[in-house]
């Protein structure tokens, strides 16, 4: 019997130190490493070991209070130079997201995560656009972004949701 997933049971909460071990576990899974690369850089940013990453806003994705994923957003104007979004206007925010529990993959929850994360940005910031920078081979993520109003900017290679 297939368990029905209630998308209304999904929520985001700020990460806590207690979450670091489960995030590390997720980042070491092959299907995540394929798109995110080696986990140590991500973990250093999430833990903010150097104190240089206070501009990142990290969240745990919960399903019925159980951690199933991770997401973050940040103001692109606060990142170090050298990224695709360097020439984007002030008020540009970038998002990243993953589902770390395999059972919850391919159930439409990625769209809910993106919707909730964008909603959070609308409430807490004053965005002119929200962008994502998926690996071009990550077709599932690209389709998810397109279903949620993001379009490819062929010049930058970024997926953008313009705010009117």
TrEMBL record:
SUPFAM superfamilies: Acyl-CoA N-acyltransferases (Nat). One of its GO terms (biological process) is response to antibiotic. The keyword Transmembrane helix does not apply. Keywords: Antibiotic resistance. Pfam families: Acetyltransf_8. InterPro entries: Acyl_CoA_acyltransferase (IPR016181), GNAT_dom (IPR000182). One of its GO terms (molecular function) is N-acyltransferase activity. Residues 10-164 form the N-acetyltransferase domain. This is N-acetyltransferase domain-containing protein. The lineage of its organism: Bacteria, Bacillati, Bacillota, Clostridia, Eubacteriales.
């Amino acid at each position: 019997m297939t368990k029905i997933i209630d998308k209304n049971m999904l929520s985001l909460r700020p990460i806590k130190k207690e979450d670091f071990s489960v995030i590390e576990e997720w980042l070491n899974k092959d299907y995540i490493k394929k798109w995110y690369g080696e986990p140590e850089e991500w973990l250093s940013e999430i833990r903010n070991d150097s104190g240089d990453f206070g501009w990142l806003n990290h969240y745990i994705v919960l399903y019925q209070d159980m951690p199933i994923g991770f997401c973050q957003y940040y103001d692109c104007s606060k990142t170090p130079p050298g990224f695709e979004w360097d020439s984007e206007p002030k008020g540009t925010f970038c998002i990243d997201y993953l589902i770390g529990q395999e059972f919850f993959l391919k159930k439409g929850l990625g769209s809910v995560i993106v919707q909730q994360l964008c909603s959070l940005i609308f409430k807490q910031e004053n965005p002119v656009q929200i962008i994502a920078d998926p690996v071009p081979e990550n077709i599932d993520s690209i389709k998810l972004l397109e279903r949620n109003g993001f379009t490819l900017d062929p010049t930058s290679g970024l997926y953008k949701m313009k705010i009117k």
